Amino acid sequence: MGEINHFEYGWITPALSYALSVLGSALGLVCAGRIRTATGAGQRAWWGLLAAWALGGTAIWAMHFMAMLGFAVSGTRIRYDVPLTAASTAIAVGAVGIGLAIVGTGRLGATRLLAGGFFTGAGVAAMHYTGMAAMRLDGSLGYDPLRVALSVVIALVAATVALWLAMTVRRGLAIIASALVMGVAVNGMHFTGMSALSVHLHETRGGTSGTEVSGLLVPIVLAVVFGVVGLVYALLAAPSDDDRAGAAYVSARLDGATPPAEAGPAPDPVGLRARSAPEQSAPDPVGLRARSTLAQPGAQFPSRRSTDPRR
Fold first, then answer.
1. What GO CC annotations are associated with the protein (predicted)?
2. How far apart are CA 156 and CA 161, in angstroms?
3. Residue 126: per-residue pLDDT
4. What is the DSSP string of the chain?
């Protein structure tokens, strides 16, 4: 039985893996929030792809292999099968993409949410154990069925909650809080699955095929860096609501139309406003209006002789 050490470099690898999962979750939540506000199918597909890469590629897959940097087994060196490692990446991104496609189209209900969470959670668990199967060492791997089942349940619940947050969370502080929670869930699933592992070393040690983890470190770091930079650039380059309003204003100016913000009162084509104005005059209970009329210059007072009935 080989002695397993999950934290060969101390707190560095779990801290970095948690930071990657939080960063990927935050970017994924922001990108997923753009899916429902997108105006066309092309935009929805674009934001769905970016969200799938952020959640599946960064928050899940990159986090997994960052944590695996601190994994060691006494008495043997660990190598990785590159094709299986690449397949685990495709599984993670594809599973999240399917889940987002299920919950991101149509009205979000319990059925859609559970279906999306099932596909995504199953994909996350498949990614984890595919990545574990990619390990090459002088021994055989064994798993505790109960802990494996527990890790799968955690993956299903975490994926369902993540999709619900992706479709409902919009504000900045809520996104940060949700990303922190999702980071705990993703790391919890990973280390629960790792705790189910046992290694039985072979009596005769032979050479193992594959690539050492140090050889995979540079490609993984580059993929994470370029992926994160690309996601941030896409978010910054995307037009905001203010940008759309400004574009509509400029378009209205160029077309010769009056922008909505400068539109005046409604037109009065038949002069109803002018006709109704005299009819709304204030009452004159003591005859002030008549007196003011006589007081005007040029007004003639009536003759007393002509108005006296005695004459």
1. membrane
2. 9
3. 92
4. -PPEES-TTTTHHHHHHHHHHHHHHHHHHHHHHHHHH-SSHHHHHHHHHHHHIIIIIIIIIIHHHHHHTT-EETTS--EE-HHHHHHHHHHHHHHHHHHHHHHSSS---HHHHHHHHHHHHHHHHHHHHHHHHTEE-SEEEEE-HHHHHHHHHHHHHHHHHHHHHHHH--SHHHHHHHHHHHHHHHHHHHHHHHHTEEEEE-SS-----SEEHHHHHHHHHHHHHHHHHHHHHHHHHS--HHHHHHHHHHHHHHTTPPPGGG--SPP-TT-HHHHHHHHTPPP-TT-HHHHHHHTSTTPPPPPHHHH-TT-
The closest alpha carbon to 125, from 152, 96, 101, 87, belongs to 152
CA 311, distance to chain mean position in Å, is 99
29 exposed, middle or buried (CB, 10 Å; 0-12, 13-18, 19+)?
buried
CA dihedral 140, 141, 146, 150 (to 10 degrees): -170
Task: Answer whether 14's CB lies under 8 Å from 194's CB.
Answer: no
Residues 155/196, Cβ–Cβ less than 8 Å = no
Amino acid identity of 179?
A
pLDDT given for residue 87 in this prediction: 92
Radius of gyration of the chain measured on its C-alpha atoms = 36
In single-letter form, the type of residue at position 242 comes to D
What are the mean pLDDT values of the chain's consecutive 10-residue runs (311 residues total)? 82 90 90 80 87 90 88 85 89 92 82 91 92 87 93 93 86 86 91 92 66 65 73 68 57 61 47 46 52 49 49 46
Query: What b/e sequence results for 240-272 when a residue is b if at least 16 CB atoms lie within 10 Å of its CB, and e otherwise?
Result: eeeeeeeeeeeeeeeeeeeeeeeeeeeeeeeee
CA 67 from centre of chain: 24
